[in-house]
Amino acid sequence: MRRTGVVAWALPLVLLVGMVVLTALQLNSSSVVLLGSQPKSDSNLVWGTPREIRWDEYMISTPIAVGAVAKGLPTHTWIGLNDIDLEATSLAPMRSWVTAFKPQMWGLMVADPRREGSVERGFAWHWWLTLVAGILGVYALLMAIRARPLLAGTLALMVGLAPHMAWWSGVHASDSLGFVAGAGAAAVMGLRSVRVRASVAWGLLAAWLLLVGWFALYPPWLVSVGVVVVFVVAGVAFDRRVGWRRVTRVLAATALPVVVVVGVWLTQNSAAISAIGATIYPGQRRSVGGEGSWSDLLSAPSSIFLSFNPGALSLGHGAAGNRNNLSEASSMWVSAPVLALLVVLLALSIVRRARARRRGDGVVAPSTPKPDNERWRMTAAGGVAAMAVLLAWAMLPLPAALGLGVMTRVPGFRTYLAVGLAFAMLLHVMVGRVRLPRRVLWPVALGTVVASGLVTAVSTRDLMLRTSVGLAMSVVVAVVFACLVLTLLFGGRVAQRVGAGALIALTLVSYAVVVPLYRGLGPITSTPLARYLAAAATAEGPTRWVTLDPSAQPVLAASPQYAISGMTLYPDRALWNRLAPGQDSVWNNYNEYLWAQDPSLDAAFVVPLGLRGSAEMNVSLCSPEVEFLDINYVITSKRWPAALPCFSRVGAIDDLGTTLTIWRRTPRGGATPTAAAP
């Protein structure tokens, strides 16, 4: 036990030390390098390929987070065409009690924009803590269920560094996974604790971790991962014959703080939350069953090939689910034939155990575990039940009514993360506890491996455009993955260690080829435009800015200035009804607006673009109907010129591969304003 206890800390220590080193070196995996004028020659790009598909990270979430630090960590600030209540969002650090439940933001909270490298280190903390939390949360849950450090560590890395996590890096996948799984781990420890104080303390820790997952504010992953955790924790309680008194104690210690904190948050931020809930997207978005895709769910073996050949992805809907980019097509490490084998072995084990109990003679069949290792079947069954719920919702055309108002918040293509967690948990629980006679083992293993290759071949034909190399590589990776998982399941001690090492290597490679490694945040904090914006804010305080050149938008959002163009997280209905009346079907959404000057308009006209969450904002900036926006400055460029008769040219900057022109609103008296910054 003592040796297990020491070994159990190996993975957490390695990850935490690695996080500290990467943070100190100001390294992150953001694709912000793409915002520079020459990203391929940027010396701060240490490794890998920045991903254009991660535009919501480098164009929106990263600039907003950095901009909040530059603005002094306010709780309210103008982001787009609204004074945003940041407590009702999850993108930015702020000076608020809510930050107690956002540890990933703590590095940015203490960052000082005046100190060189401070913001970059704060952002690196934000990036790596999110990733590490995803791995350690899963590791803690697996260890709480069954203390096998090597197995738990291998599977935690397999989940936390899965292709789905790589292609969704920079958003809330790891937050939802790690902290909700960690809450499940704390709940399991509370159920295992005999002492009242210990069980209550574990329940309170579970509450804090669950609240951290809640404040990621992304229901699809929160709900789907929560389904797995609830079923698994219930299975643990059943297996361990936990009394109702202890269950109630842990449940109360977890639920009461969550209810109180969420209730206070809902009350304090009711206006913003109501505005978000009233939006068409995401507020009124509801899902029905059948929005997932088997080929996407089983796409992990194709990720390595697609990372080098992104153009091979087959886009579309229907059989392709919601696949319109590599992020949407990504998934977790899951093998359908291996999963089917695990379910069959679990069913056989339950039947054998039931027969042994009915005999009542205390004799246990040789192929079953020893009596002192019997408390696992309902835990495994809980994982299977959770997976059945998620897969049924993802793949079957179920009506919304069966979602019970909860699963309707989860599109089928957002269940893959939770399915991967359930698969890893099932494997962790069953390794070494199920046996097959040798004469049966090899045919079953061979059949499972062959089936894995065939299933991948079929799914890859739907996933990719016709490419024999991509198909062959995907099949090889799927076969290797199935062999490694079966080695963990049935192998001896040495074979299991070799299989674990090989599986970790496969996981690390599949993750590393997707994400870049970049030093600092130079393209949004250290460019000529960034310095100009900072100097202007120092000279006259933050003012309202609009850019007509989209490439300047993330730099503007990351500055101390108020970016009126670009992303609007949720609309101000009164403002929009005045600016673009009758167009609420377009502007009543979470939208990134590309602004364009159109002097023929009375005010504004919004045109939706093909990508959901983006629109073109055609506006007459000199119209009296637009004056109420109090826009002080406009940025144009040679690529995006505009006639602005009510603005005066006050500066020019060579940046972003073009010449940017800074325009300042002309005072009503007609005097030409002077530049506010050099």
From TrEMBL:
Family annotation (InterPro entries): DUF7654, DUF7657
Keyword line: Membrane, Transmembrane, Transmembrane helix
Name of this chain's protein: Unannotated protein
Organism, scientific name: freshwater metagenome
DUF7654 domain segment(s): 523-640
Bilayer-crossing regions: 123-142, 149-167, 173-191, 198-215, 221-238, 250-267, 332-351, 384-407, 413-431, 440-459, 471-491, 498-518
Pfam families: DUF7654, DUF7657
Phylogenetic classification of the source organism: unclassified sequences, metagenomes, ecological metagenomes
Annotated ranges, domain DUF7657: 14-430
